[in-house]
Amino acid sequence: MSIQINNINHFQSGQQIQKQISKPNKFKEYLTNQINEKHHLKISKHAHERLSQRHITISEADWSLIENKVYKASQMGVKDSLVLLNEAALIINTQNNTVITAMDREEAKTQIFTNINGTIIMD
Q1: pLDDT of the residue at 26
Q2: Torsion angle of the four alpha carbons 111, 114, 119, 123, in this order, in degrees rounded to the nearest 10
Q3: Parallel, antiparallel or unpaired: strands 80-84 and 118-121
Q4: How many degrees, rounded to 5, is the angle at CA 57 between CA 52 and CA 62?
Q5: Higher confidence at residue 57 or residue 13?
Q6: Residue 91's beta-bridge partner residues?
Q7: How far apart are CA 16 and CA 59, in angstroms?
Q8: What's the DSSP call for residue 9?
């Protein structure tokens, strides 16, 4: 039976060890950022134009709540969701985390929404 041991005489300085210890923290930070980035909604060019044309503003706090609800919906298998807010209605593709279109609630009352398999009501 043969056992091979590599680098038995390789010693590391204190600085090298410190760098290795800090790398997991950087990795953890990177991973956390990537996970958080995955939950952030992207706004399509079309949706951005609609939000602007219709003078729809959504607060950062509301966007954060929407992102959390959309993430939960995607975990439940929802692919395309209608998100109803007090002042707006959004169509969001949960697989791509992308806002597809936006309209105010008055306009939404006159629409028929198809190919939606989940609805999120934000009050």
Answers
A1: 74
A2: -10
A3: parallel
A4: 140
A5: 57
A6: 82, 101
A7: 46
A8: T
Sorted by sequence, the CB contacts under 8 Å of residue 115 that are 6+ apart come out as 80
What gap in Å lies between CA 67 and CA 20, rounded to an integer? Answer: 35
Residue type, 56: I
Classify the C-alpha dihedral 87-108-40-118 as positive or negative: positive
Rounded to whole angstroms, the Cα distance separating 17 from 49 reads 52
Tracing tokens 């007090």 back to the chain, one arrives at 86
Read off the pLDDT of residues 68-79 as tens digits, 9 standing for 90 and up: 999 999 999 999
pTM: 0.70
Paired tokens of 84: 């109803």
Neighbouring C-beta atoms of residue 65, cutoff 10 Å: 16
Read off the pLDDT of residues 17-37 as tens digits, 9 standing for 90 and up: 455 445 667 777 666 665 556
Residue 99's DSSP bridge partners are: 43, 92
